[in-house]
Amino acid sequence: MKDPNISKGTKVRLWMLQVPLPKVPPIIVAAIPISDRLTVSQTLEFHKTVIFGLLDEDINVISYACDGTETERSLQRAFTQLAETSINVIVPSPRDGLTELQIPIPVFRGHPISMVQDSKHALKTFRNNLFSGARLLVMGNYAAFFQQIHDIAFEESSPLYHRDVEKLDRQDDNAASRLFSAATLQFISKKHPDQIGVIVYLFIFGELCDAYQNRNLNHSERINILLRSRYFIDMLQQFIDKIPCYKPHQHFISREAFDIISFLINGLISLIIIHRDHHPHIPLLPWLHSSEACEHVFGLARQIIKDFTMLDFYQMVPKLLVCVREAAFDSNLSQRNEEMKARASGYHHTYSDMHELDLMSLSRFPSEAEICQIAQRAADEADSLIALLGIYPNTLHSMDIHLPGINSFNFSDSDEDLDNGSDGDLEELNLEMDELERLIKFNEESGYQLTNDQQDRLEVLTSASLALLLEDQIQIQALADEVDDETYEEYLSHDCRAVKDALLRRSDIPTINLDQPAIISEDIEDLSVESLVALREKHQTHHAAHSIRTQENNKHLKLDQEHSLRQQIISCFHLELRSTQDQGVTTGEGRQTRTQNNVAPLVSAPGGQTRSTRPRTNGNSANAAATATSEANKAAAKRRRIVRKFKLHECIEMGRVTEFKPIHIGDFGFIFLENQVYLAQVIAMYSRTGGKNGKHAAVSTTSNISALSYIAVQFFEHAHAAHFRKSPSFMSPLDTMAYAFLPSYAFLTVLGSDAVIELKREPILAEISQQRIQKTEHS
Hints:
Elements: E1 11-17, E2 27-34, H1 40-56, E3 63-66, H2 70-80, E4 85-91, E5 101-108, E6 111-112, E7 114-117, H3 119-131, E8 137-139, E9 142-144, H4 146-153, H5 173-179, H6 182-191, H7 196-213, H8 219-242, H9 248-251, H10 255-278, H11 292-304, H12 310-329, H13 337-340, H14 368-388, H15 393-398, E10 426-428, H16 432-446, H17 452-477, H18 485-504, H19 529-539, H20 542-546, H21 565-581, H22 589-596, H23 624-645, E11 663-664, E12 668-673, E13 676-688, E14 696-699, E15 701-702, E16 710-720, E17 723-725, E18 738-742, E19 747-750, E20 764-765, H24 770-778
Parallel strand pairs: 3-7
Antiparallel strand pairs: 1-2, 1-10, 4-5, 5-6, 8-9, 11-15, 12-13, 12-19, 13-14, 13-16, 16-17, 16-18, 17-20
């Protein structure tokens, strides 16, 4: 235990086995404590022991599912490299301009195993990409960005809640489901029909994730969704790569999201092929190939003991198994109305939900010839969606473009787009108990001169912490004992009946009908937003349909945001110890404790909202607002020096942005891009919060142009006189409108108050006051 080479475990890694059939509960296979420093190669050794151990016991493993973290995907790749052989699945290219899809399925000891990503984690990753302040997603003639969704959430009769866009929880399953629901698409199409970019974005990724989550869709339609998504994303990437001023790390989905898409598409197609060729008599329920069971077990453990240790977890396993079985048998457990509509509530587990289950549809598997037909239809639908964005598919296909590999993506700021902190098979161990023990020991050894009242309060806190520890042990002892042999046999008998019932219900399966008309028209001219809404209504889950905001539940629910009792005791300990240290100067650990728990005022950044002061919670967030203010002032000073050094017009010095005339979304101005000056309209603004890991937060106005980290604009090229083109010349032959995601120094100046802007449908933007143009050009 005293070996310094052994790292302290801070997380629990969990492996669970799921028989992917209705009403069959998952099984806890292994759980180990791991440290934050555990490498992929070290994790792989544990993983090999588990998977190969199952295979040696003739347990037919057909998938390995995990969440979307970089470590987990790297582990899947490393494990794939160990395969003795592989099955190469090829979906031929349906036409020129689209690459064939090659999917290797690794085979271990004669068992093909599909590498799958959790689809609900993926949905949150796509939500985070849209909400990121580090990118502007360009979709042909349109752009998709956070401000659009933020404004929609505050509109009357919106299907979204305010909390879905403010102080948002990046792990909120309900919020992600609401965002990609048919109701949200319909609301945007009615209220904001010009926001085609965000409509198509929500449609594509909502459909992709529901290819896993839908309970009754036949597998031919699932493959159509997967291939349509693949072809659409590839064509959109070609478009971004073609335009010189568009960079993948700023104008396309993140590298991580792009990688997750490949895992989702390849994983589900692999599962369909494995079932078709090796287990044709067993229906495929793709939503059960996920890491959701791991998350559910951790959630149940937190309900028993909020801050558990590894020992606590081991002792809770018998009770957890009983709770998991109860959830598997109660298909309505996850469908309670108030739980589906909850806000900032983290995980919402639906893997045991069998609402609208159709085992007959889930038991039909298309042949290779049928998959080729599906690929043709998917390509036609992808063309229609690309054309809806104003990109002509034939022009795109005719270009000689070599797509960059995934490693060519820029990594900067991509952490904002991930579903951070949502490791499905990892859970933080209770480090608060360690902190309490440290504080108690420090108090005993500090030698402070305490008053009687201070001593009494510290003794009360010590007793309270010991009482919590005793309460945890009492709760564990009150849990169910190990399952006896008779009960265990009863469990096995019930599970066998559930498996047999699922297999019997798939009998008399009709043949696949590939001649059913598609809701998405293959004729580019006939595609409408209404057809996309109709398809989302057909494919979305029961959870998505019932999680939206309605008039009956518009009042905000009071959320439980209280800290755990241990956190409160720790806070009180720090407060008391600080008060004792105020009586004199201390050294060593005493000084460190006083410094770490200092209360520092937070100053609002220039142009940002005023924030109240709060005590430091950790080193990363200390003085965050003050840092942002300092950085903004430095940037403003640097901008002034450059303008004065090169004797530029004084209007560029602060961009005509002042406290009396702040810049707003919708304002026009001039930008400097690719050695040219363009007219631009502001569509979104972001200001980076202070601190080492500060995020780019959306703002709607600022009085200091240098306080902005990024400005998203649609820009126009000068044509003649006071006229500007919507499609700059370098966009030829695509002729789409142009967008830019710029640092604040590239925004030269806003137009004066006497400038008049008139937007027209024609390719020319006109007209700006001639006098104003002359003044600006002279500047």
